[in-house]
Amino acid sequence: MIRIPASRVAAGALPQVCAKHGHAAIETKAVKIISKPPVWAAPLIIVGALPYLIVVMALRKTVKAPAWPWCEECASERKTRFSVGFGLLALGLLLFVGAFALNNDTSGLLFAVGLLALLIGLIFALRGGVLPITGAFTSKDGQFVEVPKGSEHFAMVLSRMAARV
Ligand SMILES: [Zn+2]
């Protein structure tokens, strides 16, 4: 787990190293890093999606990172997730069209498989966003940005930078 003070992230004072993969950054991304929803809020979903969202939004801590390091592997992960996601979305739509066009016994099955493809495609496409790829979260108190599966190399360069400041 890598912990970076939120002020450093907000100032863009980060190593030019990808925090997740440890490769040299090829560019930087502006990204809003948010905290995870608290575990105790989950039962609120039973009460309704709205109360849950209100609680989660009220407690959410956001750190605006103007220059988060982004490496080649981040870019290719994003490309893969988008290709798989949009591929499945297209397949799902195709199966829907097929189901309506055939309009026979297999239509129900085609429709069900199409729906599944759409759902999985949507999840992949959403996981292709900049924030999911960074793997970074803001801590509950908003003081730190945490990368649970962060790279050792990033942590080392970061601590050297911190020592110089
Ligand atoms: Zn990366």
Explain this structure to me?
This protein has one domain (2-164). The chain has seven helices and five strands, in the order E-H-E-H-H-E-H-H-H-E-E-H. It starts with a strand and ends with a helix. By secondary structure, it is of the alpha+beta class. The protein is flat. Residues 18, 20-21, 23, 71, 73-74 line the site of zinc ion. The chain crosses the membrane at residues 40-59, 80-102, 108-126. Keywords: Membrane, Transmembrane, Transmembrane helix.
Low-confidence segments:
none
Order of helices and strands: EHEHHEHHHEEH
Strands of the widest sheet, in order across it, are: 1-5-4
Give the strand content. 15-25%
How many β-strand stretches?
5
Query: What structural category characterises the helix and strand content?
Result: alpha+beta
What general form does the structure show? flat
Radius of gyration: 20 Å
The mean pLDDT is 94
Q: What percentage of residues falls in helices of 4 or more residues?
A: 55-70%
Small-molecule components bound: zinc ion
Biggest sheet: strands, sense, closure?
A: 3 strands, antiparallel
How many alpha or pi helices?
7
Q: What distance lies between the first and last C-alpha atoms, to the nearest angstrom?
A: 22 Å
How many separate structural domains? 1
Transmembrane segments: 40-59, 80-102, 108-126
Keywords: Membrane, Transmembrane, Transmembrane helix
